[in-house]
Amino acid sequence: MSDRFSRTIYVGNLPADIRESEIEDLFYKFGRILDIELKIPPRPPCYCFVEFENSRDAEDAIRSRDGYNFDCCRLRVELAHGGRGPSSNDRRGGYGRERERGRDGGGGGGSSRYGGASRHSEYRVIVRGLPSSASWQDLKDHMRKCGDICFAEVYRDSEGTYGLVDYTNYEDMKYAIRKLDDSEFKNPWTRTYIRVNEHKFSPTRSRSRSRSPRKRSRSSSRSVERSPVEK
Prior knowledge:
Order of helices and strands: HEHEEHEEEHEHEEHEEE
CATH architecture of the domain at 124-198: 2-Layer Sandwich
Radius of gyration: 19 Å
GO molecular function, one term: mRNA binding
Subcellular location: Nucleus speckle; Nucleus, Nucleoplasm
Number of helices: 6
Mean pLDDT: 75
Domain RRM: 7-82, 123-201
Shape: elongated
InterPro entries: Nucleotide-bd_a/b_plait_sf, RBD_domain_sf, RRM_dom, RRT5_SRSF_SR
Helix content: 10-25%
Distance between the termini: 42 Å
Family: Belongs to the splicing factor SR family. SR subfamily.
């Protein structure tokens, strides 16, 4: 149970007319979402719980969205501490269970937004020249200046420390290459200059594992703001 709490976040101070799809738009880029429980009390503000597959994704969502201004509401985002209780989702079968049916063969093939390798995309860059102290959080913070990221990880090989970063669309990937190549990368311990290039997938890579460009249709006029690019 404690493991579930480590990957579940509480989101407070939501507007009274908030929709589940808008919560999804706020948090999908941080990692695979297993469940959303929206709470609409008799008096606002509304609040919800969002459960990620990975506790690191939950931590990243907290760092990026706590204090975020959404529709004139300053969001409060922190780790959940239990007491989730029943929600509107319980009446329609649950967000997570509905996604599980689509992912595991209940129709629709392998293109589910949350299915299979959905945290990866074909819009990938390789980042060379990272310091040995670089973490995936440091890398993600630096690279998200140019767009929405769905995956980031740090590795080491014979040439040193490097990173792989997946963007959700082609335009953000090309913008990152143009703006962040030879940019200064820094964390609390060191700073260095990095090289950013497009990562070329092997020709034998199965096309079925490629992520289609994300289509985000919304009936609401609200949109998630993109952070400005910083040099």
